[in-house]
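1st attempt posting a full record on here, be nice pls
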Amino acid sequence: MVGAAVLCAFRTLRPAVVTAAAGRFPAPVESLLPPASCVLYPAWRTSTVRTLQLSSALCAGHNKWSKVKNIKGPKDEARARVFMKFALMIRIAVKEGGSNPDLNINLAQVLEQCRRRNMPKASIETAIKTAIKAKTSQLMFEARGPGGCLLLIEVLTDMKSRSHQEIKRLLIRSGGMLSDGARHNFTRRGVVVVQGQNITMDRALELAIEVGAEDVQEIEDEEEQPHLQFICDMMDLKKVRDSLEGLGMQIMSAGLEFIPRTVLSLDQDQLEAASTLIESLNDYPDVVRVWDNIQVQS
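the predicted structure (as tokens):
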């Protein structure tokens, strides 16, 4: 039972509870839902006042679901699954912005994460070459899970009908369903994760203000090590990342994530069901990442 544990490292837990200037958003990926629902990146609210809030993510990364039930598996299996998902992320980044990381910031960030996880160079090169040649479709499924939780399921596939039927089957089996409009509860933001050891919350807030982040959250990785997650406008991702690195912060990851606008608390039975559903979705080879709006109490 490794799927949910591994893939949760690529996702965030709580929404950025701040107001920011509206930014430019990329064109939405292709969806199998009706056109009326195809607003992948909802417009961010505008305001003349920019505020920043220091917030604590109760659980995040692998550790979010490990507090629900034991989902950690053999390290070799987890490592292989991480590399498989990284390969999908590389293919999506290449599909969206080309194969040159100097001109494709998103690809550069993914490759940096691959190197930090010691993904073999040959595997990285194969993923890039495959992305250039492959004729695949990038899809985003909107769904509702146990207890009314909302899910975004990112898929890369060479057969849309197959993926659609399998995602639908997995959802129904665990008490979920495809649901038009779920994506409106999410907004796409830049996320930079740094090591959080020996950094007080007061200092974290100072850093966020200094680098121009909108929000900063406390999270834990799969080894329950403390990290800080800085959330920013998509267009400011590189600036915030470089600024944090320049201030001596050790960058663990940086990229674009879907942040829920509001989070939902579930009871224990619903959490178990949601964990099982997300794990099964992540185990499906065509699934790249799954985002949810679930808040897990520590």
